[in-house]
Amino acid sequence: MLARLRVFFRFQESGLLLVILALGVLLTLFAGKVRTPVFERAADGTRSRVFTTDANGERIPLTVEKNKFLNAQNLAQLAKDTSFIAVMAVGMAVVIIAGGIDLTVGAIYALASVVGALVLHRYGAEGLATTSSPLLGILLGAGACLGVACLCGLFTGGLIVTLGVHPFIITLGGMAIFRGIAFVITKGQSVGAFPAAFRDFVRFEVGDGLSFVPLMTMLVVLIVGWIFLSRLAAGRRVYAVGGNELAARFSGIRVERVKLGVYLISGLCAGIAALLSLGYYGAATSGDGQGYELNVIAAAVVGGASLTGGRGSALGVVLGALIIQMISSGIVILGIDQNYSQIIIGSVVIAAVVLDHLNTWLARRRLTATAH
Amino acid sequence: MSAYLEFRKITKRFPGVLALDEVSFTVERGTCHALIGENGAGKSTLGKILAGVYTADSGQILLEGRAIAPASPLAARELGVAMVHQELAFCPNLSVAENLCLGDLPRRAGFLDRAALRARARTMLATVGADLDPDTLIGTLSTGREQLVQIAAAVGTGAQIIVMDEPTSSLSAAETAELFRLIRTLKARGLTLIYVSHRMEELFALCDHITVLRDGRHIATEPIPTTQPTRVVSQMIGRELRAHTPAHLARELGPVRLDVKNLSSAGAFNEINLNVRAGEIVGIAGIVGAGRSELVQAIFGLDPAVSGHIWVDDQPLALGSIEHALTAGLGLVPEDRKRQGLILGLNCRENTALAALPLLTRLGFVRRKAERALASKYAQRLRVKTPSLEALTAGLSGGNQQKIALAKWLARDCDVLLIDEPTRGVDVGAKAEIYQLLDELACEGKALLVVSSELPELIGLCRRIIVLRAGHIAGEVPRAAFSEATLMQLMAGVPAAA
Prior knowledge:
The complex is a heterodimer of chains A (about 375) and B (about 500).
Chain A: H1 2-10, H2 12-31, E1 33-37, E2 39-41, E3 47-49, E4 51-53, E5 59-61, E6 63-67, H3 72-97, H4 105-123, H5 134-163, H6 167-186, H7 196-202, E7 205-206, E8 210-211, H8 212-231, H9 233-243, H10 245-250, H11 255-281, H12 292-302, H13 314-333, H14 341-370
Helix pairs in contact in A: 2-13, 3-8, 3-9, 3-11, 3-12, 3-13, 4-5, 4-6, 4-11, 5-6, 5-11, 7-11, 8-9, 9-11, 12-13, 12-14, 13-14
Chain B: E1 5-14, E2 17-27, E3 32-36, H1 43-50, E4 58-63, E5 66-68, H2 73-78, E6 81-84, H3 96-100, E7 107-108, E8 111-112, H4 114-127, H5 143-156, E9 161-165, H6 173-188, E10 192-196, H7 200-206, E11 209-214, E12 217-223, H8 229-237, E13 256-265, E14 269-277, E15 281-285, H9 292-299, E16 307-312, E17 315-316, H10 322-327, E18 330-333, H11 337-341, H12 348-353, E19 361-362, E20 365-366, H13 368-381, H14 398-410, E21 416-420, H15 428-443, E22 447-451, H16 455-461, E23 464-469, E24 472-478, H17 484-492
């Protein structure tokens, strides 16, 4: 039993699980109660309130008392919100493990959203191509959204490789360029009115309001990311380049190709998140995903991806995304002023880095102690 | 009377190595005290502990009977101890004056006082007799000049003890003479110098006492007049050099595997012609800067600007491309394993499999079983001492890291191995094992081109040695004519002594 526990604690992810558990318990304890109306689902799938009569015989909606944090609706909301960040964080983890950084994710998310939205709009109720099949429109819209995201990733990756400039600068510029393009092509207007089938698909719910599609997408991205990083030769090369670029080059690894690849992956992940948001919210503007790079980098760093490169895992960053989202929603639930959320998330990132340094230092001491 | 400076049982451990093991000896005031030892003997470590770069794990340093424990170079400076480094001591983008006063820039009303800055720098430079413009950027100075500025900084801030780590390793003959003159002046002024080097002639010309370290242990401290170079050498080596003849020399040579014709790269080497046959170990000797590493890296395709021709097993090799070099069966064990050879954040298995990855992949997936088998095969063959194949290479000793760096290319089954400094910073036991391995590889019919700055190593291993000087082949010496003197003369460009 003890041995099994020890094996459990050897994984960095186990520490993250403990943090999530602790956060969950704390939020449950301090969240307080809320009265929510009770709904019932009719045979045709529509939801309606359940009414009862009070002492005076008046008809009032039936409510139940629930824990503000620990209730099915809130958890479903948390799962959905986490999915968006987590999908992007997996892509960010790949970039960070390769020793890079990608500040463009929020801007790619916005640009891919609006391009996808413009295509979907054509096939929607107010569009010009209403006569053609909605499925064609959905496929074209999704393709445009993901394609643009991949192109953006290739663009930044290509510049980083050919110019040999630090990725921070290139992606900082890319961030402004992509969001600028999104603004120009939409003239700052919100684009909506998509084929209804698309929205219905993404918003498909199981149980008590749990959005099935974003959650599943996150799981698929997590599994694919995990396989890529831990089982594929390409993933091994990502760790090698991030761990020591020169040694990787001396071992015959095509470093440029690896770098190009990781920004492509990050772009694609931002595109997937954008596609989910299109379906979920049913509209897009150039202002979408503002500041997402902070949350996504925070998720990756909290999840154990080392900014010096060479270290991190897909599961870790997904758990990191969950922690970040729990903190964000905790701020709402505990009734803390929303304006503090940025301050708190920023502090969490710094704390995570400090802990990581402490951990590295301890590991080095252990190494020295056991060397002889 | 207690000694001026005393080391008492100084012990220092690095991950995987015991660098210093209870080293004790004393240094007299106003002398130049030599620290000598083979690579990895611990001489630089000891100097760095005195200068506050490292802290000792245990033991004491006594300065005039008082225990000192400098926790940083700055703390050591305040105690009057300064170190002259080989490189990177200054900010290359700032001027001589700014660098000299960096710790305490003269200010007037909060603004930098440029006139005072220059005046102070001039005074400091004058103490070492350096005729330099204080406004020159450090980055534009030669190594010798920069060293002079370092010494000026040390003396000018009141240092009483100066530690010099291999000060002449990249100096010209004229600069070396200048440095020696300066050291004698400083000594006459009562300063104490700790001179870390492994150049015997220099020490005997310059120093008063000599301390020999071997494998982190103190072997002897003697006044120069009572000892001789031969005695010091045997103290350094601590064993009779075995006259062991490698087995590959007795074998028939195979066909030419690596053939290099007219290989040139601007600023590095020029018109290099050499070949290595199957079953042969060919050595490359030369002083630092002769173009040794540049040459093997260019053969491996790391130099895009190279011109000439290379054939591997009679097939022409496209230059400047690692991929083609790999396909042709070339492998390079680079000189700096931590920077170029290994990925320290990855474990032994992953490092061993790194170059062989394309051979271990099916549909993009790494075949984990095959990978483990391969890694464990070479870990056993090279006798790598590691707790497990999953242990990070960062925690291994220098010798075991070097074995992993070699295993990486054996795992890919290269036919032509270019090995740059096969045993730098490797302990004695692992050295012998690596020599044994290289011998076995030659016996298997591989072609080995070995670069080394340790002549005994090349003399022990090779069938012939090619000497490089300033980017040219200065000569080729067959095994029958091997001697350190012959090689040194070719390396330094000195005509054979009459």
